[in-house]
Write a structure and sequence with these properties.
CATH class of the largest domain: Alpha Beta
Shape: globular
CATH superfamily of the largest domain: YebC, transcriptional regulation domain
Strand content: 15-25%
Number of domains: 3
Distance between the termini: 34 Å
Largest sheet: 5 strands, mixed
Strand order of the largest sheet: 1-6-7-5-8
CATH topology of the largest domain: Alpha-Beta Plaits
CATH architecture of the largest domain: 2-Layer Sandwich
Order of helices and strands: EHHHHEEHEEHEEHEEHEEH
Structural class: alpha+beta
Number of helices: 9
Helix content: 40-55%
Number of strands: 11
Amino acid sequence: MAGHSKFKNIMHRKGAQDKKRSAQFSKLSREITVAAKMGMPDPDMNPRLRAAVNAAKAQSMPKDNIQRAIDKASKGDSENYEEVRYEGYGPGGVAIIVEALTDNRNRTATNVRTAFAKNGGNLGSSGAVSHGFERLGLIEYPASVGDEDKVLEAAIEAGADDVESDMGDDENPGSHQIWVSVDSLHEVAAELEKTLGEAEGVKLAWRPNLKVDVDEGTASTLLKLVDVLDDDDDVQTVWGNYEIPDEVMEKLG
């Protein structure tokens, strides 16, 4: 178990994503519907649905919207979404994994391939970069739930594998990222909830084995690529093995 004070993950500049609230809601709704369709429509009986509902609540999605997305699955009038993963290289050779939920594979593949091609990257074949990542469970809390020692102790007690904490500053609120095995994700999340309260996020994630520092020029193009991918309605998450130094992020604004 290790504690790290600095954690700058793939999901950069959360503030910029606030502007995309309606697009974010539609992605959250899609995940809720798919999760409800694949298992029970009750979040207490369906770990994936519970995680999706918690993620929606963390983004202040109205209860009515959440219930509508669940009902959509049980009514059978929802589109047939399938999960698709794309792997490729961004500018500077950084490895990127894109996860999507789509009702049209051809449309999504074309959009993702174009995003890579226009922003200094290229799409690879399945398995091209995922060997450099671990598939893990990720539980996220805001830094405000407690200091590193408190969260580390709670995580050890709950059976987590690793914790990365960024206590933040005036501009960055900070967060705790708690890593667990895929199989124990919801069990550990339930234990943590007893001591730290409800998590901001409980999900499956891709954690890079090694991170690559990128310079200002590479970072600028890379962030454009991530933004374009994020803006695609079919794309749910974007993961990468890059680290952008604080001074570079400050220059990029």
